[in-house]
## 1
Amino acid sequence: MSTLERPYVLPGEPLPVRLLNTLWAERGDLRDDLTTPTDALTWLRTNGFPTKSVAPSELDAVVELRAALRTVAGHLTGDDRVSALRVGGDDPSVVTAADDVAAALVVIDEHSALAPTGHLALVDGQVQWSTPPPGSTIEDALAVIAAAAAVLFTGPDASRLRACHGPRCVLYFVQDHSRRQWCSLACGNRARAARHYRRHQDETAPRSRGKRTSEQPSTAPHPLR
Ligand SMILES: [Zn+2]
């Protein structure tokens, strides 16, 4: 198993969004790129952090930060996707509550506060400000991600953060041009196929009028909205 090479969805998104998107869906089934400490180490290294190891408790910290980011992203995007809410919190019936968002912000704050601030060092007789390479420990890496999330959630990109409403998609993306509606071309194609299917169902429904008006398709694409 390679520890450094692994593809992830939407690798061009900003760092915090890349962490959000370690939860993704394939044919309606949820996939999680961060289920083991090795998963977390691989993700961190693939995303540019020189982290050397990840302990089980540190995996928990990564997953905790991801959950907090998803809560805030859900709030900012008005995310009402059932599939995304199911993975974002304990209660799938509740669209992100203000208390949840406040608690998530505390988690992000706590992580960003752990960013290494550097220290004074004497180098060749000179007093210098020395900063360690960011992300060499889990604490540092999560601090960098949390700080980047704080910038994303409060800066100009906050209004461009989107929840993808492709069928069963749980991904987020930053809308980098005004015509982008979906996280990917594949999601756009699935959404168009689902729309086509619905239209076809609407056109054929009157012919089966009578006692079958409440009949539901069971094997069709199942768009969220
Ligand atoms: Zn999508």
## 2
Amino acid sequence: MGFKSNARKKRQQSGADSSSKKSSEEFVGQVKCDVSGCKNWADKKVGGRKLAFDRAADVWGESGLSSDSRRVKICKSCYRTWKKAKKDEPTEWS
Ligand SMILES: [Zn+2]
């Protein structure tokens, strides 16, 4: 009995160690970035943000967003893009 379970354990170990070495490198989130073409995660954990659709559409256009809800979720790098684009825009034009 003891011998048998021992053997099974051994087999499991040797079978698993070939391709289970990438654990913390790749984050798997639940919220996808709504910028079309972007494959990043927009989870809060990884710096994702929510933007009002109109504000996001200012930068990517309505067709550049894969969501048409009033709030779009964008990833960290898209948020940076957005912020930058917004910065270039003159804010005080009175
Ligand atoms: Zn993105």
